[in-house]
TrEMBL record:
Zn(2+) 1 binds at residues 14, 16, 100, 248. NCBIfam families: pyrC_dimer. Substrate binds at residues 16-18, 42, 137, 220, 252, 264. The lineage of its organism: Bacteria, Pseudomonadati, Pseudomonadota, Alphaproteobacteria, Rhodobacterales. InterPro entries: Amidohydro-rel, DHOdimr, Dihydroorotase_CS, Metal_Hydrolase. It catalyses: (S)-dihydroorotate + H2O = N-carbamoyl-L-aspartate + H(+). It is an enzyme of class 3 (hydrolase). Pfam families: Amidohydro_1. SUPFAM superfamilies: Metallo-dependent hydrolases. This is Dihydroorotase. Homodimer. Residues 12-305 form the Amidohydrolase-related domain. The active site is at residue 248. The modification N6-carboxylysine is found at residue 100. It comes from Roseobacter sinensis.
Length: 344
């Protein structure tokens, strides 16, 4: 008898589905395993208003594979012109579950993000009042701050001041990559959550840069040194209630990754659960996997956990190296080791 593991069906609390033919190609990779996902709004143009989010949700629902049971949880892209009343109405109608903060210039399609944080004060105050979470890409963009320090500096200079100025604001520190973020998150109250990606549990910066540059391991925030990866693994596998999975699965075509100035993002949707089971087993924490993938996220977002389940068996897993799209192939994240756990 091979070992098996049954979990409540997971959710992905940070996912890029893109649009058009890319959406159609990547959506089945998520709906196969996940019941719900927080859908990132960094399209071109971005998903800014409730009307934009409703239209994008309809395009996602129209692209669902036959028979898929999947609920996209929509977000709004915070700009300096975002209308607090539009945000409140979008939440009240059940359409929108979070607002996303991109510091302008921090990452893929962030040009419409926030430069002057004073300009978004009224929106943040409204969100604190109505309990709508702010999902944060937590990196400063100052040219004089080293890219490996941008998350730690953001916490001190931007995140903590925003939280102090806006009591009660619920915040998700997205895709944390440092022990600084782990320490900050664990010291806060239950208004603060943190997501961790699959790939940041697996790679450190050597994987990107040593022995030749590996564009498919380049994402933002960029993977840090090994001590940080270890801190992330401890946090993810600890069972701590405010830490949960946000894969940040971020597909780009190989043509856009393999360039002199290539795009940031790792495409992990197809093999995320197999990789996570292996990471948790290596850490002796398989009993905490369900909390990370299926329980902590819904609790933070005030939603019930899923009723149905997925089962993994230790029979070895295969996955495609690439997914075909009308725009060209998208390479799947390669963890660098064979996968033991298959989703059955
Ligand atoms: N993580 C990434 O490297 N890229 C994301 C944007 C983001 O989540 O920062 C993308 O949209 O491609
Ligand atoms: Zn981001
Ligand atoms: Zn992302």
């Amino acid at each position: 008898m091979s070992q098996s593991l049954t979990l409540r069906r997971p959710d992905d609390w940070h996912l890029h589905l893109r649009d058009g033919s890319m959406l159609r190609a990547v959506l089945p990779e998520t709906t196969r395993h996940f019941a719900r996902a927080i859908i990132m709004p960094n399209l071109v143009p971005p998903v800014v208003t409730a009307a934009d989010a409703r239209a994008y949700r309809d395009r996602i629902l129209a692209a669902l594979p036959e028979g898929a049971d999947f609920t996209p949880l929509m977000t709004l892209y915070l700009t300096e012109d975002t209308d607090p009343e539009d945000v409140a109405a979008a939440q009240a109608s059940g359409l929108v579950h979070a607002v996303k903060l991109y510091p302008a210039g921090a990452t893929t399609n962030s040009a419409s993000g926030v430069r002057n944080f004073d300009k978004v004060r009224p929106v943040l105050e409204k969100m604190a009042e109505i309990g709508l979470p702010l999902c944060v890409h937590g990196e400063v963009t100052d040219a004089d701050i080293d890219i490996f320090d941008r998350e730690a500096v953001f916490i001190d200079r931007v995140l903590d001041p925003i939280r102090r100025a806006t009591p009660g604001l619920r915040v998700v520190m997205e895709h944390i990559t440092t022990s600084n973020a782990v320490d900050y998150a664990s010291a806060q109250d239950d208004t603060l959550g943190a997501t961790i990606t699959t790939h940041h549990l697996v790679i450190n910066r050597n994987h990107i840069l040593a022995g030749g540059i590996k564009p498919h391991y380049y994402c933002l925030p960029v993977a840090k040194r090994e001590t940080h990866r270890r801190a992330l693994r401890r946090a993810a596998t600890s069972g701590a209630a405010r830490v949960f999975l946000g894969t940040d699965s971020a597909p780009h075509t190989d043509a856009n990754k393999l360039l002199p100035c290539g795009c940031a993002g790792c495409f992990t949707a197809p093999n995320t659960l197999s990789i996570l089971a292996q990471v948790f087993e290596e850490e002796g924490a398989l009993h905490h996997l369900e909390a990370f993938t299926s329980l902590n996220g819904p609790a933070f977002y005030g939603l019930p956990p899923n009723e149905d389940t997925v089962t993994l068996t230790k029979t070895g897993a295969t996955y495609p190296t690439q997914i075909a799209t009308d725009d060209g192939p998208v390479t799947v994240f390669d963890p660098g080791f064979p996968l033991d756990w298959a989703v059955t």
